[in-house]
What we know:
The protein has six helices and nine strands. By secondary structure, the chain is an alpha+beta fold.
Amino acid sequence: QVHRAVLTEKYGGREVAIKIQRPSIESKLLGDVANLKTAAKTFEDLLPLDYYTVMVELEKQLADEFDFVAEAVSMDRIYQALTRSVDGSKLTESPIVLPRPVPGLISKRVLVMDYLKGVPLSRAREEMARRGIDPESPEAKLFGRKLLSALTASFGRNILETGFFHADPHPGNIFVLDNGDIGLIDFGQVKQISGRNRETLAKVMIALDERVGDDRPEDLE
């Protein structure tokens, strides 16, 4: 659950979001996954896919979601990567707005962070209609370009420079802020890829950009 709150003056008096883990949710959810793993193993010959492997991977992913201290560390890592040059020698402006965790108000099951004023991308069209903005208008198309540019720059830098990135960027986690900026929340799912994988991914992206067409053998190598 996430609640909106205002800190006391001791912690700056600003508006924050408080993410609170429901009691016993970790044991309940992981217990459900354990049962699904057992069922998938028992009926593996009858299932069209290897659901046991899927459930094992899901179990690993969910375990990461229950440690809010680790989530706060991930928020800081991504923030540092986006607000510094590649060599770390100078500060740069982040393409997106990231909530900052509040030191001293973080535990495994409670995470206090900046409150981002806006709406999730999943509700952006509804918000545009409320404000009388035509989704096909030049204003809307200009915002679409801004959104794409901000996300491309952010995820491109994270994936290709450090290899550490937000791994759950669905429309509910991407925010359109009241001032028009783009925000990103929920850092419970992150991934780290190796330098070799980053290099391979970069080569693939360059090859796709430079290809002439799918009918040329050299473009398919």
